[in-house]
Write the structure tokens for this entry.
Amino acid sequence: HGAPKLLLLLTALNTTLACQHLRPRDNTFAWDNLKILKIMAPTPSLPCQHYQQPFPDILRHIDQPQQAATVARQILYNLFAILSKQNIPQHWDVKARHDLLNNLHHYIQHLEHCMPANKMLIKRRGPRNLMLSINKYFKHIWDFLQTHSYSACAWDYVRIEARTCLQRMDTLIRRMK
């Protein structure tokens, strides 16, 4: 009778520790991908006027490694979805884009592995509102792309926002320890 309970307990412990013990590449994940982003989507010669949608103030609400992993996964999932669009600007480097998407995908999988099986957020009001804020932020980016007909200028806005997301990832990864 005790063996199944022990197995469940060990599985839960393993998934909890999977995010707390970072892999060697985790320390440089954000900065490595910022370099790839710079290669993939160079700054255009003519800057565009953008409406600045502030990145949600998520970091002050995150006090548990599991919250950090959940928020990081949501950010990367949305970023991956946007950068996977087929109608990216022609001047973006295809190989660098492939490398960036590959890195994002692998890290999303890593985060999903270290999250509990039910993938439920901690049942506090704050984290749920965080997820809503993050989803609203990315919806704004999608709307901006669509409103501006996926123009090079709109994609430059995406590049700037992707840079912001990757910078926040560095802090989130450290909070997963």
